[in-house]
């Protein structure tokens, strides 16, 4: 049963307040913030705050969901964990009481040279998640971290700070996306955990909202392995929190988080398939969807290694942000879901026309678009890199014209893409790299200044990573391989297997290695480098390595 067929699962007073305050801003209005307390629900202080739990009463391991770090800065790291002795229970196995957690940051994995330590509080209002922003650190350093509660010690994580602002130190990073739990094992993460990369960019679809049955679909667990709480679509805050617990219970995902800092952005499935701003996929009242969106955004922030500025405010969460790797790279992390115009022509693959080509249509929203282009004007980086969600380069799905294009990708918003490319040109961006997920295949694209002219100047490259599991095993040459490679001469590579990409950025060139695994519906697949490309500073365009 879809949410459209469900009676509302939200409390009547929440729905009433949502209707009163309208479509977009109802949860951030003063009165609504109080009425819809679940969506903001900050921990109270003083006598009204939750009682403190005696950590000695925690008799089972609370660190079942591992540890993580994210958004590295030259002088700071963000550390994350969640206390959940029983992660498949709605309360995680803990009472609604705050818990004091201690943490340590060391220069060595045996924690003999601890450089920082402190205390943090796991609040029940935040589902006993913990985030610690550790400052006053040395740039370009590797650190190890762990948490303690009572007699329990978390697994150790490994993280790093970014280099100093003026540095041109090289960078190696990984790209992942689309990890539907019930369509395969996280073999790609097992291999990625063993890679020597500085940071991992997750480009969306960290979880999927669809029901997961007791055998976990293609994972084919013994009957009854997973409880019934997962066998429904995520709609409420409790639903989304439980789904993150399921995903993070996977040992290979936990290993990747412990091995590398992550920089994350969402796509659609963290909330609902192909939603656009405040427009849902299904025909539900707007207040119902925005309540769902508020719940999804709150659970995302709680469970991702994000800093406090990304904390949601009602139905909104400002996820787009800028990170630097010295003077080598500027990363402008985009959000192409929260502010977009609704998909033209009912979504899907359609012919372009007046509706999709309307110059007022936007994929990023006006404020984010200005932020991106203004940031390029101020950039002094060798590489300007844009981690985002949906395919940026043109994709025809037919060798004859006119051809249909995806209304959910930048092809469905050509005026938005043109403004971005014109902005990069005006800012003098010479080495543009767009990082993309979403489509469950590997692509390598040359970004053309004018995609209608194959001879147009190449102004950048787009690296599209395949899924970790979504789409199940896949194939090296999908049925449309010949068509897409012929119809899109700027497409240099296409594979439908699962895996990830590693990218090395240097002062003279960048190298992308497309990694694949042969299968995910059973465990143990080896890792293969299916293709490698380089693009040179000042001479954009992908060439076989």
From TrEMBL:
InterPro entries, per database record: Metallo-depent_PP-like, PhoD-like_MPP, PhoD-like_sf, PhoD_N, Phospholipid_Metab_Enz, TAT_signal
Pfam families noted in UniProt: PhoD, PhoD_N
Residues in Phospholipase D N-terminal domain copies: 65-161
Domain PhoD-like phosphatase metallophosphatase: 173-514
Protein name per Swiss-Prot or TrEMBL: Alkaline phosphatase
């Amino acid at each position: 049963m879809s949410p459209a067929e469900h009676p509302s699962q939200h409390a009547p007073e929440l729905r009433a307040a949502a209707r009163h305050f309208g479509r977009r801003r109802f949860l951030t209005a003063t009165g609504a913030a109080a009425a819809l307390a679940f969506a903001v629900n900050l921990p109270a202080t003083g006598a009204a705050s939750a009682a403190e739990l005696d950590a000695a009463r925690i008799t089972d391991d609370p660190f079942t969901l591992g540890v993580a770090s994210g958004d590295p800065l030259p002088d700071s790291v963000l550390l994350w964990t969640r206390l959940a002795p029983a992660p498949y229970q709605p309360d995680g196995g803990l009472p609604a009481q705050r818990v004091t957690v201690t943490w340590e940051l060391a220069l060595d994995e045996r924690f003999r040279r601890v450089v920082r330590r402190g205390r943090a509080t796991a609040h029940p209002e935040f589902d006993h998640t913990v985030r610690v922003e550790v400052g006053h650190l040395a740039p370009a350093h590797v650190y190890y971290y762990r948490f303690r509660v009572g007699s329990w010690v978390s697994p150790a994580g490994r993280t790093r700070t970014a280099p100093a602002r003026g540095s041109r130190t090289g960078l190696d990073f990984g790209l992942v996306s689309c990890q539907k739990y019930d369509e395969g094992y996280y073999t790609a993460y097992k291999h990625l955990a063993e890679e020597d990369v500085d940071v991992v960019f997750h480009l969306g679809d960290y979880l999927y909202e669809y029901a997961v049955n007791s055998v976990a679909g293609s994972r084919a667990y013994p009957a009854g392995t997973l409880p019934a709480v997962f066998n429904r679509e995520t709609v409420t805050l409790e639903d989304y929190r439980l789904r993150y617990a399921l995903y993070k219970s996977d040992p290979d995902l936990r290993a990747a988080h412990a091995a590398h800092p992550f920089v994350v952005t969402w796509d659609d499935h963290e909330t609902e398939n192909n939603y656009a701003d405040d427009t849902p996929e299904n025909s539900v009242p707007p207040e119902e969807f925005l309540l769902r969106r508020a719940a999804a955004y709150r659970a995302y922030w709680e469970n991702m290694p994000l800093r406090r500025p990304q904390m949601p405010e009602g139905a909104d969460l400002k996820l787009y942000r800028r990170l630097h790797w010295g003077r080598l790279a500027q990363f402008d992390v985009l959000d192409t879901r929260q502010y977009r115009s609704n998909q033209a022509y009912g979504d899907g693959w359609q012919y372009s026309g007046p509706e999709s080509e309307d110059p007022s249509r936007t994929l990023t929203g006006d404020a984010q678009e200005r932020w991106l282009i203004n940031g390029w004007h101020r950039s002094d980086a060798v590489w300007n890199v844009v981690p985002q969600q949906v395919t940026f380069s043109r994709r025809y799905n037919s060798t004859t014209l006119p051809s249909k294009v995806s209304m959910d990708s930048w092809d469905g918003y050509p005026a938005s893409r043109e403004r971005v490319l014109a902005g990069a040109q005006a800012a003098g961006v010479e080495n543009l790299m767009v990082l993309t997920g979403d489509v469950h295949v590997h692509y390598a694209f040359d970004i053309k200044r004018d995609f209608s002219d194959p001879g147009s100047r190449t102004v950048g490259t787009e690296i599209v990573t395949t899924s970790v599991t979504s789409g199940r095993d896949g194939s090296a040459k999908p049925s449309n391989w010949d068509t897409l490679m012929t119809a899109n001469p700027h497409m240099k590579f296409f594979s439908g297997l699962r895996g990830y990409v590693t990218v090395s950025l240097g002062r003279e060139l960048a190298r992308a290695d497309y990694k694949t695994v042969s299968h995910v519906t059973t465990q143990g697949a080896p890792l293969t480098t299916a293709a490698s490309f380089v693009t040179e500073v000042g001479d954009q365009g992908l060439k076989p390595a």
